[in-house]
Amino acid sequence: MSASDQSPCTRPVRPKGSPYHYLIVISGIMFTGITVSLICSCAGIFFTPVSRYFHVPKAAFTGYFSLFSITMVVFLPIAGRLMSRFDIRIVLTISTLLAGIGCLCMSFCNRMWQFYICGVIMGMGMPSIIYLAVPTLINAWFTKRVGFCIGLCMAFTGIGGAIFNQLGNSIISSAPDGWRRGYLVFGLIILVATLPFTIFVVRTSPADMGLKPYGAEEVEEEAGAENKDSAECKTQEPEAQPPGRGMTAAQAMRSPAFWSMAVFCGLITMNQTIYQFLPSYATSIPSMATYAGLIASSCMVGQAVGKILLGIINDRNIVWGLGIGIGGGLLGVFLMWSFPSMTILLLLGAFGFGFVYACPTVQTPLLVRSIFGTRNYTDICSRIQMAGSFASAFAALLWGMIVDLPHGYTILFGLSAMIMIVALALGAWPLAWANKHPTRFE
Question: Quick one: 330 and 199 in the same domain?
Fold first, then answer.
């Protein structure tokens, strides 16, 4: 039997897309691999040289990053409303300008308060880029492969960080004030590499280019086939959600699922910041001190692999995606906690922890989409991500106080395991709630 003679029941349906769909994915990679990596993933390489140059405690300089995080909490809902009401090109272009100019201006700072102002400027621009740009664009341009595309884009925060940390260190070490040149180069890279995509490539929806979302035609064909064929005839992929359907932001915020998701996001982001203390944990073990840098790299590789893998799994079963993401983190904590002197298991544990590290930027937006739909996605997601951004602003201080206690790392890993178990329940319950309320998409 030829392929053309096969019935819809036996012939696999393969989505089609235009080159422009893939340009949207590349745009997402530029946001995460360039802007997010340079401002967030590479922030730590400046802490010591800048504080040493100005002869101030590290806490005095890193205060700019706390202001950066707090500003993001304030501007997240504003960014969500702007992206849902105005041309996304305008919002992302302004956001990129704020992020790039703020980074560039740090190279000219001569007082600590000037760094703080730069932190606020970057904090105004980054919420839409870190939390909203990729899921909003992918949700608009894709009805299939949504999880894979989001995971692929988000994986580049780690890939970009690995590349630009090396570049930044080389620039910083080139002169006593090499950090100035580092900020200058990073700011210029953000502006030159990302602005062409926000201005010339990004579009709010495929309709702006006379296109349909990737996989939309196949979803329609599958829906028609289901009406004609028996219940045994099923496509090879789960049903994709049509765009533009779901709850309004007001309806979502009145539901218990919204608040469960907000607490989930806060806890899973708080747990993510434990990554910053993994090198210190290795240093606290005499036989593992030389592996401090390697344990951080292992976690970064884990989060990059985890983001792509979780995206693929979520396209098939979102419950499995949630379970594997948090399960990887629990396994990672168990290995690091139980076998601190075994190099392979310690590194494998850090790799596993990378999977739960991936959850705030991959699992959270996919859960929001699955539970509340895409109708007011940016408004809903931005409000939920506020909890995560707020948690990240204070979590490092909390964990820092804990690790300074006697048996601090034992307490740290114990609390991490408890947080992940609670987060698993808080993430799974809204999915059960959503299954009981199918009318939410009407």
Answer: no
